[in-house]
Amino acid sequence: MPVSEELRNNGVVKNVGEARETPTGAPQEEFATGERSTRNRVARSILDHGPSTVAELAGRLGLTQAAVRRHLDALVADDVVEAREQRVYGARTRGRPAKVFALTDCGRDAFDQSYDKLAADALRWIAEREGGSEAVAAFARARMAAQAAAYRKAVEAAAPEERTEALAKALSVDGYAATARSAPTGEQLCQHHCPVAHVAEQFPQLCEAETEIFAELLGTHVQRLATIAHGDGVCTTFIPKTSKTHNTASTAGRNPA
Q1: All structural domains of the chain
Q2: pTM above 0.85?
């Protein structure tokens, strides 16, 4: 059974190389089940938090770094995760960048229960029959406007300094595994998962409409620094510090720098 089907249907990650005696003498079936469960936790942690180092995974999961490396080796062999050089924003510090592990397309698919091909075909039909890219953009804006009703409620109920965090929590409810964190001159909204990433790769209007909605909800211009649809590990949106500004202009797409 393909890895993606195992994750989707059984909530486990394919186990590799476990036809061996257990170190504790436990029944082999119980040992294998425990290994699969832990391996799935490792993959899920990467999904929820984005590309992660061995140390970060060990800290989040309460495992030794040696155990995390063993599970990562198996996940890499199964094409669920891949090793990357850690991206550094701003001034690079001395020393070699830490290696991080990110989900592959195969690994991300394993957590999706989407109909990517159907959605892409539908948007292509709209583009061909109803007015090209502008028709797709109109659809994307209408879709986000409807989806943003719950986000708006959450943001408006929060204090101004807590609105990015409130938006992140609302997005997480919809499966985006979002977090908010401080940045030197503002905040970053990070979406560690995108249920429509494969469709957005073909139709960037989806990302652009989302960025526009974020700007509207937060009452300031925002800048999209990275997107999963463009091959980045995390969708990252920068929200600058603001006091009484209500400018809703947005900068969609990736950071040109």
Answers
A1: 3-111 (1.10.10.10), 123-240 (3.90.1520.10)
A2: no
